[in-house]
C-alpha cells in the first residue's frame, strides 16, 4: 500500500522524476506544523489546528495568495477548503492551477455570491470564465479540484463536476491557494499530473493524506436496543486494517469478529455482491475511496422458509464515507433479517439495480447523509407481495439528511415496514415519485425539502396501498402535495431525535451529505 507521509512535500515533477498517469507532483497536509515550500502574497497565513493541522488565511482585508511548485503542465490541483468569512460582495476562496506567480494563474473558487467560480488572473482583478450556482456555507469543509489539461479547464466540488471552460493563457505553472478578501482554512493539498479528463470517482486522483474516521454513532433505528444488540458500534473493540486491493477488502469484510476496515482509494472489485460479516466498520479515507464493479451484501443467503430472525443473522455493520459506482447488481443490499446497520455519508451512483435495498425482514437500520444521483431505482425497502411473512412487523428504518439528487423513483419505495421514518431529506427533481408507501407500510415523512417534485409523497403509487403521514415538509418550485392517508406508529416511541427546520434542510444537506464530510 502506498501512502504519503504526514506533512511530506513530494515534488517529483520539479525533480524531473518519471511518473505514471496520475503521479503525485506535490502534497502537503501541514501535519509537520509548517508551510515550507509555499510563497505568499498578501494576507496573514499560518498553520493552525482546524480539526487537523491546516493552512489558515486569517484576514478578510487582503487579496491573499500562496503558491507552491513550478513548471507543471497538465495538472489536477485538489484541496479541502473551509470558508470562514468574506469581506464585501463577490469574494471567494480558491485553489489555483498553472500559477505563473502569485498574480497570474487559473482558479476555482467558492464565492459568497452563492456560486462556484472558474476564472483566471493576469496581474489585475480576477476574470470569470464560468460559474455555477451552489450553496456556500461558512464553516463547512468542501473538496475543490481544478483540472487543467491542454486548453481545457474543469472544476469539481465534492467530486462533482460543476464548471468547465477553455483558455490558452497559461500552459504550465505551480499550484496555489487564495483568499480573495476572504478568510479560510486549507488542508490536504494534492497535485497530480493528468493526461486528459478524469471522471471521479471511477478514475479518481489518489486520496489525500488522511485518517480513517471510525468514531460516531447513528440517530434513528440503528441506535435502538433490540434483537440482542444495543445500538450499532460496528468494529468497535477490534483491530483496524487498511486495504487498497480487492483481495484485501473482500477478505477483511468477510472475517469473523469485530474489525475496522479503512478503504484507501477506489478499488475495482469482481462483479456481483460481496458478503459483509457481523461487527464491521467499513470507512473510506478522504473523499475518493470506495468500490466500483460490484457491491456489498449484508445478510445471509435468501431462504423463503425462514420467517423469523435466525441466531446467525448478520448484525452490527457500519458503512461510511465510501463511493459506490458501476455495481453489477445492488450497490448495497441488506437482507435476511440483518439488523443494526448504519449506512452514512456515502456517495452512490450509476449502479445496475438498487443503490441501497433493504428487504426480507431486515430491521433497525439508519440511512443518513448519503448523496444519491445518476440512477433510477434508488432505494427499495421491502420485497414483493408474497413476502409478507418475513417483512410484516419488521423493516424499521430511518432515512434522514440524504440528498435524493434527480433520482426518479424509489426515494425510498416502501413495502410492509412500520414505522419507516423519513425526515430532513432534500429532494430535487425526482420525476416519478419521492416517497412511495405501499403494501400496508406505515411511513412518517416529516421535515423534508421537496424541490420540483410533482408527486413528493404517495401511498397509492403502485400496487397495494400503504399508510403515510406527511407533516412539516416544504414544497417549492412546482412541487405537488402529499397523497397520504391513515395513521402510523410514531418513531419517537423507539428513539429520540431533533427535527431541523425544513427551510434549512437544502443548505445543510447539500453541504454535509456524501463523502469527505466526516
Number of helices: 3
Mean pLDDT: 89
The rough form would be described as: globular
Strand order of the largest sheet: 18-19-22-25-28-31-34-37-40-43
Largest sheet at a glance?
A: 10 strands, parallel
* Measured distance between first and last alpha carbons: 23 Å
Task: Give a written overview of the molecule.
With 518 residues, the protein is mainly β. It folds into two domains: 24-193, Jelly Rolls (Sandwich); 221-492 and 499-512, Pectate Lyase C-like (3 Solenoid). It has a ten-stranded parallel beta sheet with strand order 18-19-22-25-28-31-34-37-40-43, covered by helices on one side. A nine-stranded parallel beta sheet has the order 20-23-26-29-32-35-38-41-44, with helices on one face. Strands 1, 3, 4, 6, 11, 12, 13 and 15 form an eight-stranded antiparallel beta sheet that branches. It is globular and about 70 Å long. Mean pLDDT is 89; it is low at 1-21 and 197-209.
Chain-wise SSE layout:
Blueprint: E1 24-28, E2 39-41, E3 45-50, E4 52-57, E5 63-72, E6 75-86, E7 92-101, E8 104-111, E9 115-122, E10 127-133, E11 142-149, E12 152-157, E13 160-166, E14 173-180, E15 182-193, E16 225-226, E17 229-230, E18 240-243, H1 246-253, E19 259-263, E20 266-268, E21 273-275, E22 280-284, E23 290-292, E24 295-298, E25 315-320, E26 323-325, E27 332-334, E28 339-344, E29 347-349, E30 356-358, E31 363-368, E32 371-373, E33 379-381, H2 388-391, E34 397-400, E35 403-405, E36 413-415, E37 420-423, E38 426-428, E39 435-438, E40 442-446, E41 449-451, E42 457-458, E43 467-471, E44 474-476, H3 505-512
Parallel strand pairs: 18-19, 19-22, 20-23, 21-24, 22-25, 23-26, 24-27, 25-28, 26-29, 27-30, 28-31, 29-32, 30-33, 31-34, 32-35, 33-36, 34-37, 35-38, 36-39, 37-40, 38-41, 39-42, 40-43, 41-44
Antiparallel strand pairs: 1-15, 2-5, 3-4, 4-15, 5-14, 6-11, 6-15, 7-8, 7-14, 8-9, 9-10, 11-12, 12-13, 16-17
Amino acid at each position: 500500500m502506498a501512502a504519503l507521509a504526514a506533512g511530506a512535500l513530494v515534488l517529483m515533477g520539479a525533480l524531473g522524476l518519471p511518473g505514471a498517469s496520475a503521479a503525485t507532483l506535490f502534497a502537503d497536509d501541514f501535519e509537520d506544523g509548517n508551510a515550507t515550500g509555499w510563497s505568499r502574497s498578501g494576507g496573514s497565513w499560518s498553520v493552525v489546528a482546524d480539526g487537523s493541522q491546516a493552512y489558515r488565511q486569517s484576514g478578510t482585508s487582503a487579496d491573499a495568495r500562496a503558491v507552491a511548485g513550478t513548471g507543471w503542465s497538465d495538472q489536477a490541483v485538489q484541496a479541502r477548503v473551509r470558508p470562514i468569512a468574506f469581506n464585501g460582495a463577490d469574494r471567494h476562496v480558491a485553489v489555483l492551477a498553472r500559477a505563473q506567480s502569485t498574480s497570474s494563474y487559473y482558479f476555482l473558487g467558492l464565492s459568497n455570491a452563492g456560486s462556484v467560480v472558474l476564472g483566471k488572473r493576469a496581474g489585475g482583478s480576477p476574470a470569470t470564465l464560468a460559474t455555477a450556482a451552489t450553496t456556500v456555507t461558512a464553516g463547512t469543509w468542501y473538496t475543490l479540484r481544478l483540472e487543467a489539461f491542454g486548453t481545457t479547464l474543469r472544476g469539481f466540488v465534492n467530486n462533482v463536476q460543476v464548471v468547465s471552460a477553455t483558455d490558452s493563457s497559461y500552459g504550465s505553472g505551480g499550484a496555489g491557494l487564495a483568499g480573495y478578501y476572504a478568510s479560510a482554512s486549507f488542508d490536504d493539498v494534492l497535485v497530480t499530473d493528468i493526461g486528459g479528463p478524469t471522471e471521479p470517482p471511477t478514475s479518481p486522483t489518489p486520496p489525500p493524506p488522511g485518517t480513517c474516521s471510525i468514531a460516531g454513532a447513528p440517530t434513528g433505528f440503528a441506535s435502538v436496543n433490540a434483537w440482542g444488540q444495543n445500538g450499532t458500534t460496528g468494529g468497535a473493540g477490534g483491530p483496524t486494517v487498511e486495504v487498497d486491493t480487492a483481495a484485501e477488502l473482500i477478505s477483511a469484510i468477510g472475517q469473523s469478529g469485530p474489525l475496522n476496515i479503512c478503504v484507501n482509494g477506489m478499488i475495482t472489485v469482481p462483479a456481483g455482491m460481496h458478503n459483509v460479516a457481523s461487527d464491521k466498520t467499513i470507512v473510506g479515507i478522504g473523499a475518493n475511496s470506495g468500490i466500483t464493479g460490484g457491491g456489498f451484501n449484508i445478510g445471509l443467503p435468501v431462504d423463503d422458509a425462514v420467517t423469523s430472525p435466525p441466531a446467525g443473522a448478520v448484525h452490527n455493520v457500519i458503512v461510511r464515507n465510501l463511493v459506490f459506482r458501476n455495481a453489477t447488481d445492488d450497490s448495497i443490499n441488506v437482507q435476511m433479517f440483518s439488523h443494526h446497520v448504519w449506512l452514512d455519508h456515502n456517495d452512490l451512483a450509476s449502479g445496475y439495480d438498487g443503490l441501497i435495498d433493504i428487504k426480507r425482514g431486515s430491521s433497525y437500520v439508519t440511512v443518513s447523509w448519503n448523496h444519491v444521483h445518476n440512477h433510477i431505482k434508488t432505494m427499495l425497502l421491502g420485497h414483493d407481495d408474497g413476502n409478507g411473512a418475513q417483512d410484516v412487523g419488521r423493516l424499521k428504518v430511518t432515512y434522514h439528511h440524504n440528498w435524493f439528487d434527480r433520482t426518479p423513483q424509489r426515494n425510498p419505495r416502501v413495502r410492509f415496514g412500520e414505522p419507516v421514518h423519513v425526515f430532513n431529506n432534500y429532494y430535487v427533481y425526482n420525476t416519478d415519485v419521492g416517497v412511495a408507501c405501499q403494501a400496508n407500510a406505515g411511513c412518517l415523512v416529516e421535515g423534508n425539502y421537496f424541490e420540483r417534485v410533482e408527486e413528493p409523497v404517495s401511498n397509492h403509487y403502485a400496487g397495494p396501498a400503504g399508510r403515510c403521514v406527511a407533516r412539516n415538509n416544504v414544497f417549492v418550485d412546482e412541487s405537488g402535495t402529499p397523497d397520504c392517508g391513515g395513521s402510523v406508529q410514531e418513531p419517537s416511541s423507539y428513539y429520540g431525535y431533533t427535527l431541523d427546520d425544513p427551510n434549512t434542510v437544502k443548505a445543510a444537506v447539500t453541504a454535509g451529505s456524501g463523502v469527505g464530510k466526516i
